[in-house]
Amino acid sequence: TNINRGRTVQLVFLNQGTGILTNCLCLVLLLLLYGQYGREGENNITYDKNALISIWQITYSIGAMILLFVLITRILYLEESIVWKEQQYKMNTEINDNNNNNNKNTPTEEKRSLEEDNARTTAKKSNSFRLLLDWYGTRLFGTSAVWFLWDVTFYGNKLFQSTFLLAISSSSSSNSEGTSLLSFYIAATMNAFVAVMGYIGAAFLLDTIGRYRLQQYGL
């Protein structure tokens, strides 16, 4: 419904956090299954090379199967929207009408008709773009700038996330090299779980306090 539109859109982004959390859980379970615990506090933590290769292969295989499932269901089962079908029908009808009219014209008239259509299309696109800038230029610039700043902070944190997780999961405050993979991914799982809770909380608050205030509180 229109009342819960913001919540519905936000819950789509929840899939991102859910995927990260699921991946971390899979890695933790596979490390436990293969017995790759590591030894806390030692500089040289040893692992079974073949076990680690099997773990990342299984992890990527799970992700590939999910993508394949989504692709198959998209192709075979998901129906196109009514709006898209109407637009396609209208466009095909216009193309057929133009072709029928061109077939009735002489070569000279057909050439003139194509030139007029091209000129009309170019003028329409130019006018549409100018109207877009006149009415929504400020909003487009503001939205683009905000997204740019948000991406800098969000993906900047993602780039250095491993450094933060190493500091959190390390058993020694002065030596992060003694952190085992299991401890690291447990910390990553906790971090992903908190992020998922943030997605859910934002989804249920979005239509209550509004997008503008929610973004202000987030900053």
Task: Describe this entry's structure for a reader.
This protein is mainly α and 219 residues long. The protein has helices at 5-33, 49-76, 82-104, 107-159, 161-169, 181-209, 211-218. The chain is extended, with a radius of gyration of 27 Å. The two termini are 28 Å apart.
Oligomer: single chain
Q: Which structural class do you get from the secondary structure elements?
A: mainly alpha
State Rg.
Answer: 27 Å
Kindly estimate the percentage of residues that lie in beta strands according to DSSP.
under 5%
Order of helices and strands: HHHHHHH
**Uncertain parts:** none
Helix content, binned percent = over 70%
Average pLDDT taken over every residue: 78
Number of helices: 7
Assign an overall shape. Answer: extended
> How many beta-strand segments?
0
Largest sheet: none
Amino-to-carboxy terminus distance: 28 Å
Topology:
Blueprint: H1 5-33, H2 49-76, H3 82-104, H4 107-159, H5 161-169, H6 181-209, H7 211-218
Describe the structure using short key phrases.
single chain; 219 residues; mainly alpha; 7 helices; extended
Quick rundown:
It is built from seven helices and no strands. The protein has 219 residues and is mainly alpha-helical. α1 runs antiparallel to α2, α1 runs antiparallel to α6 and α6 packs antiparallel against α7.
